[in-house]
Amino acid sequence: AGVANVTSFRAGDFAASEDTLSAMEAIGLLISSNRDLDQKSSIRSQLNDAFPIRNDISRRGRMVDVPVHACLSPFPFLDRKYRHMEISAMGLRETCDALNRMQKAGYGCACILTHPGEFSRWKNGRVRPIRKNQRRLRGLVEYVARHEKLEWTTLSDSVAQADFERPQPPEIRLNPLFTAERVFEQVLDRLFALR
Predict the structure, then answer these.
(1) Per-residue model confidence as pLDDT tens digits over 56-78
(2) How many Å apart are CA 170 and CA 167, to the nearest integer?
């Protein structure tokens, strides 16, 4: 992958357990990213309560976990209790607003998940861009570049800079207006994808 040393591991589908952490530590992988309060994966995360700081970068012994951050949904009947920070899961204004409020609330970092398959799909023998997600990623990159208190960092650097003695930050509830905007955008995207 173009790096000198592999230092971290995230189990597919967040299927990590205490055994996973023990195996990681035994081979020197001391950075984990295996917590997700959203719990939409088919195998529920077994580590959400395994670290002292929930839903934020946290250390337990030598092991550090940087979870995929999740915010409380204003519409749990649509999203369940939490919505995880993923390019395809949260709208641009939802994400930017959540990042601002996380920064003000004292979060150590924000881990945003994405996959290459979120930016194009195969349809009728051709690759078609998923413009909604491309717009979200572009907008997020531009937003962070403009914001003086936000910056991109590597997983290793976020661990090196983390304050593990800070108190538990409050959970962030997504702005209902921005969530409604995202739901509308996703409905439109699905309707157009059917064409």
Answers:
(1) 999 999 999 999 999 999 999 99
(2) 9
